[in-house]
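Box 3.1. Reading complex inputs
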Amino acid sequence: MTSGTAMRDIAVAAAALAILIAVPFLVHSPAFLDYIIRIAAMSLFATSLNLLVGGTGLVSFGHGMFYGLGAYAFALLMQRTQISLAAAAGCSLVISALVGLAVGAVCIRLRAIYFAFVTLAMQMLFYSIIITWQSLTGGDQGLQGGIPRRVLFGFDLNSQFHLYTVSAVVMVVGLLLLRHVSASPLGATLRMIRDNEPRTAFLGVTVWRAKLTAFVIAGVFASLGGILAALFVSGAYPELANWPISGQAIFAVMLGGVSTFLGPLAGAAILLALGDAVTRFTEYNGMVLGLVILFVTLGLRRGVLDVLTEALRRRRTGPAAGAAE
Amino acid sequence: MDLDALGRCVSTASCLVTQTTSGLIAGLLLFLVAAGLTLIFGVLKVVNFAHGTFYMLGGYIAFTTLQVTESYTLAVLAGGAAMAVFGIFFERALIARVYGQDVLMQLLVCYAVVLIFDDLVKMVWGADFLAMGMPPAFQVPPLFIAGGIVPPFYAVLIGIALVIAIALAASLSGTRAGKTVLAAAQNPTMVSALGVNTDRLFAVVFAIGAALAGLGGALAAPVRSLTPGMGFSVLIDSFIVTVIGGMGSIAGALLASVGVGLIRGFGTIGFPTFTDGLIYVAMIIVLLLRPTGLFGREVV
Amino acid sequence: MSLKVENLTKRFGGLAAISDVTLDFPTGSLTAVIGPNGAGKSTFFNLISGAIRPDSGRVLLDGEDVTAHSRGDIVRRGIGRAFQVASIFPTMTVAENLMVAVAAHRGQWAGLGRRFPPPGARVRAMEVADLVGLAHVADTLSAHLSHGDQKLLDIALALALEPKVLLLDEPTAGMGPEERWQMIERVQRLWERQNLTLVFIEHDMDIVFRVAQTIRVLCYGRVLAEGDAAAIRSNQAVIDAYLGTEEHAA
């Protein structure tokens, strides 16, 4: 049964990847391919955040730090050194893991809202450093000048089609790995902490170690998203590390749903589509987004995918399940 | 980083006076906003992410009132009063629906209000910076204290902010209603057990908190420019102050506000581009040493 | 496994919650800890299980000093506990609750190499569910269990760790009279079959006098009396300080 669920997830991922790779042959729209590339970056970011929020009960307001860190580390390595794209990406992930370890060691000592704010402070500190350290980061202008040597395993990432293909693969593999984490024994331990942290400690779990591991893993996958974003925008800019990026991820998570693994992916897709559609019709996109948020939070009260899966479950199990509640 | 400049400033009386004054102004204005935030959190256990919006609206309303009536006093009062009313509406219509839900729900509802009102302000007052300008009565030559330049309006501002802070402290600890609020901030269940109408209490506390933010925005309007989205940096500063001081603690908020104000005042000399960074570092250090802030209680 | 505390003391502010308590719980014994509200009973359990650190004194497990070890370490050495208010994982089913406990006990909680549950965890979880009579609701969400079943699940979580010493904080709290007896009979059977050293806090005097081999009375953080049911019943200090007040409270 254990390997059964793993096989099912791999099959779903393979099917999704096949469809994604077929898309450019069916839809000849550069805008649509761009949209999918942006979803790839955003969904890794949001899903990794949900490992903390929905998976562990750790509400981080500063997860965007790792998105920005991935983008900056990767862009800097590409611009300042001669290493290959794959090596730069790998190094960026290692850097993110180390930073995640240090930042996490500080943050996870704090509880509830204090954790949320100290993560936000960490991100804002990181942002301040980016703005201040002009000689390294280009300050508020960002790292311009593009990303050289955009070649990965024979894919020339200057071509939108190739960038699209690589992004699709990275997204599917990344999400599959995150899925594996949440379905692993560690993932179960994180749910214990979310449900009842003191009890978890009384069952012999070293809670801080589990939390710190989750924090580092989430940071690494967020920075993987950041690397895709840096490739997409050909550089790294302060906006990728500023607080609204964390706000976007939080909203994607809540919009899609915290209790469904693919919720944040759905949320990211809806959020990006919404943003694109609204800017086309009005300059007041904040107002439209605000009204949508109010509808989701006060109307649905849960994420879209959570609502859907709940409805499906009810239909499948029939009224008996409803009676049990 | 320019530690020499900082050293020179600290060792000359004029620079010391100027920077301390501007630090105190920033700190006391911040305290008004943060006191409302910490009060609301203490009593309602809601983190009001829309608090910066009250500050912004208070500033804009004061701006228009001043244009119409040409009275700065009326402008400030209008900013505060309008936000008190708006606060009640906001609490009853939106926040009351997310009590007891997780903090992300509260965050999103408030975030929605922030987005909506930033755009509304853009529609009404435009997207550009607005300068309210110094009230005419204060357009006089600055005072020189120990060689430091202190505009009279700054002195008045510090005075007004101090008066409000003292009035707040006195009404909280000196009146029956105030004591109920303080008791509720410490132990909400106990107060409802005593038969206090919590619905009304919550609305009143929200009104007070919003009014304080509105007053802060109105008072600050002459010395800072108005722009949609101006609430955010104030919100972040208020959070930092609230967290450093301990969530729910007014005294903690005062201490932390003045501290943050002074860090800003002197940080601009020594670390001109990293003043914000200094404040984040301060917050992180405080939280490491005291995980619930200076005057915070254990969170349940 | 024997449990012993020596001169245990814990103050909160200026108030001594536990004051110079020395008690011995021999291997395989069944002991009730009683005392009026605020006597320090729960604090006593918290001190033994490592939830809080004593100001002074020692906790000895089979003669080995475990004072102020971490909660996890004390659990691994064989002290399990259940709580006054059932402490479970509400979003998981009964089986999942027990499987995560089993994985934790086997040191597999940090595993990333495979999927949950680890091999054998389900079988072991069902054995434990069977021990407390929860096998028939194994796939029910634990939040949906009755109050009594949630208390049983809490005990089962402790049992999944194969404890030698089991601390139960008011296993019958919040139950009706009939349910109480069912619960206490279950507990008694567990004690017999699992060869546990069992210590429980209880307010119901009928249960205490009927079930416990030894009774320890705590009052204002001190040991007021100890002995079997007959000795406690006739102890004048207990009658004055405790039974008298409890009688009109009940």
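In summary: The two ends of chain C are 36 Å apart (CA to CA).
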